[in-house]
């Protein structure tokens, strides 16, 4: 997996231009559903122990993903400001 990660990183470094045009953004959570032995109700999204991942999709073009520490406004906005050009139209799920 390390070789795949390095190849993906090298490819993304070559594609460093800002996203432009119509751009869609969204966050998702990855990880196991519930730790073994835990008898709690299943949670989805925020408030779980899963890892949040933020994604940017340029319509008709590229995709960018980044692991974020949390899915709060400052963290997500910093990724958007670093990757999306100012004249883009951003479509999100409403946060």
Please, could you describe this protein's structure?
By secondary structure, the protein is of the alpha+beta class. 25% of the residues lie in helices and 26% in strands. It has helices at residues 2-14, 73-83; strands spanning 22-30, 51-58, 63-67, 89-91. Strands 3-2-1-4 form a 4-stranded mixed β-sheet, covered by helices on one side. The chain is globular. The termini are far apart.
Describe the structure in brief:
This protein has 95 residues and is an alpha+beta fold.
Radius of gyration: 16 Å
- Overall pLDDT score: 83
Instruction: Please mark out the parts with pLDDT under 50 across 5 or more consecutive residues, or reply none.
Output: none
Terminal residue distance: 33 Å
Biggest β-sheet description:
4 strands, mixed
State the helicity in percent bands.
Answer: 25-40%
The helix-and-strand class reads alpha+beta
Report strand order across the widest sheet: 3-2-1-4
Number of strands: 4
Number of helices: 2
Shape label = globular
- Series of H and E elements: HEEEHE
How much beta, percentage-wise? 25-35%
Comma- or semicolon-separated keywords:
globular, four-stranded mixed sheet, alpha+beta, 4 strands, 95 residues, 2 helices
Lay out the secondary structure.
Layout: H1 2-14, E1 22-30, E2 51-58, E3 63-67, H2 73-83, E4 89-91
Parallel strand pairs: 1-4
Antiparallel strand pairs: 1-2, 2-3
């Amino acid at each position: 997996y390390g070789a795949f990660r390095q190849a993906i990183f090298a490819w993304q470094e070559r594609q460093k231009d800002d996203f432009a045009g119509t751009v869609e953004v969204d966050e998702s959570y990855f990880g196991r559903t519930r730790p073994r032995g835990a008898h709690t109700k299943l949670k989805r999204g925020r408030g779980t122990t899963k890892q949040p991942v933020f994604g940017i999709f340029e319509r008709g073009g590229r995709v960018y993903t980044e692991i974020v520490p949390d899915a709060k406004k400052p963290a997500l906005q910093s990724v958007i400001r670093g990757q999306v050009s100012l004249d883009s139209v951003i479509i999100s799920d409403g946060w």
